[in-house]
Write a structure and sequence with these properties.
711 residues; five-stranded mixed sheet; disordered N terminus
């Protein structure tokens, strides 16, 4: 047992150089590249008596199950059971209707799970699922989103934002404006495609349920399962130690984890279930298609007089999720007259859900494209137009910004990109069949912070253990939290051991809304600061269990200051368009952000580049279409749903402007996970317009659309 004096926080100890802001390598990097990092269905390794499950999706767009024939499936070798709505374990009513699987005979959309095959191997489970025969009474389905749909309505709330907001009289101001732009944009359904599919391993030990789940929040999964299976939360353990991506689709529990727990209870064996990728499009959420109309009125000097943004999105018949795709116009620019409206249509479609930068990504694509159109109409540089309309306070709320450095982002980005050397005339930079253009767009994302708790322990061996139920979905959260701890304790990074991703640990909110690191980090900082105080007053050797301090930020994080808190950024893109093939290639992209204090320069750059790459995909390659007859989505795998490859991203870079914001908690950090995607599609689209001299308004900007525009 070592005395307290061995800890670097002891009196007289020399504090090492701060590690926050530096870029150490990921703590779990070696585990991931060597395959020793265990994901949901890899934990535990080779469990005895393990069974495997494979879902059966509905084959009709809407209707009712009239019969399920399981005889052929049960006769196959290795089949243990086939769960159907007639014999599946009953669950209580939960908060999310998409989790009420196999509870009745209704089919709300194509792909809804109607049975579950369980067998002694993955291959046998798949064969058994294929042998299940389901009969239906189909009903006519409506799966087409259109702006003139007779059932469209304006909701009171669009994901927590008012469905409609009005300041002044925007229609009257628009009618009187000297310069006017009226335009429309469409964005197709977009899908979360994490490399690790949605997966679970479930085991019952008496009345205790243990689940390893690919989730962005273990405590959320536990709460949902506790309600469904009528258990106390203490009767459930959920582990999400390593998660292979999520992009929002794993932000709330999905049907697979309920099915795994059902199958384990029914068979009395542990069960693993990993959703096939072709089933994911219809059961794990997606970004709703959105239809946007915008009207911008301005004075001849570029001063905005009015903004109108109306967005129409789809939602399902079993659960309302309404993309808040008109919110950015309430934040971005100084304008005396504003009208922003969300409209929704309930259709026979899968339930849309969170996808990276929900709301802001489609909102800013439309707004920043319209701003570029206005700049063209005015004959003004698009950066100058944005600078001319910088607000002093947040237009929607009237609150002062805690910090806003969009101007610096635009100017620094222009300098780095060489913006002012470009010829502003469209369709003049030609090399043979290739036309080159450049585009710019601004970006914003709100600063969110949730209550969290954490503990920090000084161990007798001289090291420290920090515990918090954070989730690292590939962002580097584990490493950044260790940096926060080391900095608060005044010790080297390698003196800290971090434990995350389990409901056995102190409560942490889910990884979402670009709020994870700020939320968990605040609690970690407070716990480590409290531990430092305890160590300073401690005399003699540490007890065998070490010395521990705990924190809970419920009160502090809930006390919101009277400021509008947002991150901001500027995106720049250069594209080359082949006038013969219609192919668009991005030659280079640059993002410059004002995102508070950057806690890890390496992971922050990776996050930003990842977001920009996702924005590139939104602009050029990613789309899905609803089958108007059969329902569901036509593009259901990575062969038909095209995400960008390395060849699509030749030169991409990210930078930050120095920003100190004292209204963000002890770390001064803003989220960086989602702002990277927000302005990228508009920057690419604006660059395509500059290259061609023709405006394309329907994403993605695929070769067929380019060739049609060129005539």
């Amino acid at each position: 047992m070592r005395p307290t004096a061995t800890h670097a926080t002891a009196a007289g100890a020399v504090r090492p150089q701060p590690v926050l802001g530096t870029g150490p390598q990921r703590l779990e990097g070696r585990e991931k590249v060597t395959g020793t990092a265990r994901y949901a269905t890899e934990q535990p390794h080779n469990p005895p008596d393990c069974a495997y499950a494979w879902p059966v999706p509905a084959a009709v767009a809407a209707g009712r199950i009239t019969g399920v024939d399981t005889s052929a499936a049960l006769a196959l070798p290795g089949t243990l059971a086939v769960l159907t709505p007639d014999d599946a374990p009953r669950v209580a009513e939960g908060d999310d209707p998409i989790l009420a699987v196999l509870q009745d005979h209704e089919v709300p959309h194509r792909g809804w799970f109607v049975a579950l095959a369980v067998a002694d191997s993955l291959e046998n489970a798949r064969a058994a699922a294929a042998a299940v025969r389901v009969s239906y009474e189909a009903r006519p389905a409506d799966v087409e989103l259109r702006a003139d749909h007779p059932d469209a309505f304006v909701p009171d709330s669009a994901n927590g934002h008012p469905g409609r907001r009005e300041r002044g009289d925007a229609p009257e101001a628009y009618a009187a404006a000297p310069v006017r732009v009226e335009t429309a944009y469409t964005i197709p359904p977009l899908h979360n495609h994490p490399m690790e599919p949605h997966s679970s391993y479930a085991r019952w030990d008496g009345d205790h349920l243990t689940v390893y789940d690919s989730s962005q929040g273990a405590h959320w999964v536990r709460s949902a399962l506790a309600k469904l299976f009528a258990l106390a939360p203490e009767q459930i353990t959920v582990v999400s130690e390593h998660v292979g991506g999520g992009f929002g689709s794993k932000g709330t529990p999905r049907p697979h984890v309920v099915l795994a727990a059902m199958a384990a209870r029914h068979t009395g064996r542990p069960v693993k279930l990993a959703l096939p990728r072709r089933q994911m499009a219809e059961v794990v959420g997606y970004r709703s298609p959105t239809l946007h109309t915008l009207k911008l009125g301005a004075d001849r000097d570029g001063t905005l007089l009015s903004v109108e943004h109306e967005m129409t999105a789809q939602t399902s018949r079993i659960k309302d999720f309404i993309e808040h795709g008109a919110v950015a116009a309430r934040v971005m620019y100084a304008v005396p007259h504003s009208l922003t409206t969300h409209r929704a249509v309930r259709l026979d479609v899968p339930s849309p859900s969170w996808m990276r930068a929900p709301g802001e990504a489609p909102s800013m694509y439309a707004l920043e494209s319209a701003m570029d159109e206005l700049a063209t109409e005015l004959g003004m540089d698009p950066i100058e137009l944005r600078l001319r309309n910088e607000p002093v306070t947040e237009p929607d709320s009237g609150l002062p910004f805690s910090s806003r450095h969009l101007t610096e982002c635009l100017r620094e980005g222009a300098r780095r990109f060489g913006w002012h050397h470009r010829d502003p005339r469209p369709a003049v930079r030609r090399e043979g069949d290739l036309l080159t253009g450049t585009g710019v767009a601004a970006a914003t994302y709100p600063v969110l912070c949730d209550a969290s708790s954490a503990s920090a322990t000084a161990r007798p061996d001289g090291g420290y253990t920090v515990r918090v139920d954070a989730t690292d979905i590939g962002t580097g959260a584990r490493t950044v939290l260790a940096q926060v701890a080391a900095d608060a304790l005044g010790v080297p990074l390698d003196a800290v051991r971090i434990e995350i991703g389990s409901t056995r640990l102190p409560y942490g909110p889910l990884a979402g809304g670009s709020a994870g690191t700020a939320s968990w980090g605040w609690a970690v900082h407070d716990a480590c600061t409290a531990l430092t105080s305890r160590l300073a007053g401690h005399r003699g050797p540490l007890p065998d269990g070490g010395l521990t301090a705990e924190s809970d930020t419920t009160e502090a994080a809930g006390a919101k200051p009277a400021f509008a808190r947002h991150a901001f950024g500027a995106h720049f893109a250069e594209v080359q368009v082949d006038t013969v093939s219609g192919e668009v290639r991005v030659r280079r992209m640059l993002g410059v952000y004002a995102a508070g204090r950057i806690l890890n320069s390496r992971t922050a750059r990776s996050q930003s580049i990842g977001g920009m790459t996702m924005g590139l995909g939104m602009a050029l390659t990613e789309h899905s279409t609803a089958d108007p007859v059969l329902g569901g989505f036509a593009e259901r795998d990575l062969a038909s749903y095209h995400v960008p490859a390395h060849a699509d991203v030749p030169d991409i870079d990210a930078h930050w402007v120095d920003e100190t914001d004292t209204h963000l908690g002890p770390l001064g950090a803003k989220g960086i996970g989602e702002i990277g995607i927000v302005g990228a599609p508009a920057a690419v689209g604006n660059a395509v317009h500059h290259a061609l001299g023709v405006r394309l308004r329907d994403l993605p900007l695929t070769p067929d659309k380019v060739l049609a525009a060129l005539g």
